[in-house]
């Protein structure tokens, strides 16, 4: 009997660290998962600034990042498209990951303000009791940031800050990115070999 294909939503906002969302999407596709990808306007700006990508043709940009062969499993949506299947609780969705998550997006979700598809999908995950994983990327944090994270945690969200470990002796930027993405995959129960675990042979 075949195992049903896992379905995830990955959302990339305008917080620094777009590479985390890109790497996570690639790993999920590598594991034959179906991925619904959401990128905010500010997220596209970070693609230009941090990843040095030409985003004038967004379809070509995504093709460059994820390859033509993943079109069957990768589905992108405009944040204005409330007809997308992920906007409904009746659609099967094994988890949503907002990576990186800006404080603005986090605030709107924490306060039930569903002004676009990203925020609506996160609200659906919470109301349906499904896995919502948030990877905030901000420093320092003030009281409102912390209270919003607490509110989301109480509502059932998983908070995984973009805080790489160093016990695996990272030798490159890739190692640091892989650690954070690996922790997210662990949270989802998705197998990976992105970093050496504590107690494993270095």
TrEMBL record:
Binding site for dimethylallyl phosphate: 167, 183
Source species of the chain: Thalassorhabdus alkalitolerans
EC primary class: transferase
Catalytic activity, as annotated: dimethylallyl phosphate + FMNH2 = prenylated FMNH2 + phosphate
Keywords recorded for this protein, A-Z: Flavoprotein, FMN, Prenyltransferase, Transferase
HAMAP family: ubiX_pad
Name this protein carries in UniProt: Flavin prenyltransferase UbiX
Binding site for FMN: 14-16, 40, 102-105, 137
UniProt keyword annotation of Flavoprotein present: yes
Role according to the record: Flavin prenyltransferase that catalyzes the synthesis of the prenylated FMN cofactor (prenyl-FMN) for 4-hydroxy-3-polyprenylbenzoic acid decarboxylase UbiD. The prenyltransferase is metal-independent and links a dimethylallyl moiety from dimethylallyl monophosphate (DMAP) to the flavin N5 and C6 atoms of FMN.
Source species taxonomy: Bacteria, Bacillati, Bacillota, Bacilli, Bacillales
Family membership: Belongs to the UbiX/PAD1 family.
Enzyme Commission number: 2.5.1.129
Pfam families noted in UniProt: Flavoprotein (PF02441)
All residue ranges annotated as the Flavoprotein domain in the record: 8-188
